Amino acid sequence: MTTATPTIPDHADLGSALQTLAREFAERTAPAMPDMPHGVRGYHVLSAVHRCAHPTQAALGLHLGIDRTVLTYLLDDLEAAGLAARQVDPTDRRRRRIVATERGLGELAVMCARVREAEEALLGRLDDDERAQLRALVAKAAGGG
Amino acid sequence: MTTATPTIPDHADLGSALQTLAREFAERTAPAMPDMPHGVRGYHVLSAVHRCAHPTQAALGLHLGIDRTVLTYLLDDLEAAGLAARQVDPTDRRRRRIVATERGLGELAVMCARVREAEEALLGRLDDDERAQLRALVAKAAGGG
DNA sequence: TATTGTTATACTCTATAACTATA
DNA sequence: TATAGTTATAGAGTATAACAATA
Fold it and tell me: pTM for the whole thing?
């Protein structure tokens, strides 16, 4: 077997396909949130804040893969836009608990619907069953399930 | 319904989960290719070159979502490393067809195996059937199926 | 005149390090 | 001394515009 042709699979590796998909999703959902600070990224932060219930900045950064220094100015802008707020944790005054404002929740609800629409359009190659399967599998693999 | 509470789904949107997964995959597979120029990105380019069979730079950039100006220096470095080569298209001398060198194919085969290992480790939450389903669905959704 | 690819420049995003405040 | 967050600075990555070669 010393001169055997190296075997390279015909299909793309999963990582490459995931990156392509993620990029297409980000590009396609961006127009749905023209007023969101930092666009899709800001939306993901706000969405995670709502889901995680009063996360600290450290927890938020870890969950989203965002450096704490990046999260600082990201939250600065979400706060300036009146969509989120920092609250000092009474049990440890070093920590800031992040919450979505009422206005932030309203915006989030509007954008969730638009994002969902854009996502469905992007999944045009898949039928309904396949879409549900993909959502479930990705969520499970990412630890969200 | 004017005062109804906005409905925000409990689960993360698909775009966010895809981005998280793609980032984890890139981070985890990067150590498998310490000598590849531009790391995972270079690997994806080389892999696409092999799969697409003599793509032009324009086609390659479109497929991978990489700007043509970025692709130029990316290919410069792959060429300098002896992994890929540019060939002027005889039918249109403006075009450069990209090919993987023999050495590039060898490296690709080695890395494919390592990447696959790393990917399987990352899919720890999924059983074998689910992993196969995820691969098929992502490839189909991304247009690779 | 339009297109492929290159080069030069500027911009955005992200990470590294030093700092403040709490523990 | 260690940790949460901020600020300042530098670095990587990316896009915009001008250019050369070819169609």
Answer: 0.86
